[in-house]
Design a protein that fits this description.
binds D-xylitol-5-phosphate, binds zinc ion, alpha/beta, 8-stranded parallel β-sheet
Amino acid sequence: MYVAPSILSADFGNLAAEIRAICEAGCDLVHVDVMDGHFVVNAVAKAATKPLDIHLMVENNSFFADLFLPLKPKFLTFHIEEEKHPLRLIDHIRKNGVGPGIVLNPHTPVSAIEHIIDEVDIVLLMSVNPGFGGQKFMPVVLEKTRALRELIERKNAKCLIEVDGGINGLNAPDLEEAGADILVAGNHIFSSNSYEQAIRAIKLEF
Ligand code: DX5
Ligand code: ZN
């Protein structure tokens, strides 16, 4: 299991130190939620020693994609609900050497991406309504994770499954069993006394 701490829950007054701490504590990616300006992302990119996983939660996807593509994140994901021309944007992201990905809100069915699944490196399933950290995990996403795993296998696609929102050491085993590859966690990691132990709990390493 790969772990991507969501810096939305980090201490913003101490951002560079927080990023270094999670990187040293064994995370695999640094999950950056983008809702407004890009200055925070630049600061994160400077401090991180692990690849960035940028999750756009904006209306103007192409504008923000062009801001962040030069930072060469591992993944750049955008919400299908906010994009009229997803295939065009996916193509644009890939041509810039970055892994394109689609995000589905909790209410959006997996069938919405049936004809795009071959084109993306990652699908991010939201397990809370987007906006802020510390919300409760929605168990319905376990069923969606299984449905997405089935779709990927049926299409013989190469895409990874990421789940984001309300994740902790208790629901991580169920998500692994359902077929998730990457788990994002904000509150669980940043409110713990030991980032290393919190990350290990999600990786199911004890
Ligand atoms: C929610 C964000 C998440 C969030 C996760 O809109 O996409 O990345 O920060 O935080 P937790 O793990 O606290 O739910
Ligand atoms: Zn996120």
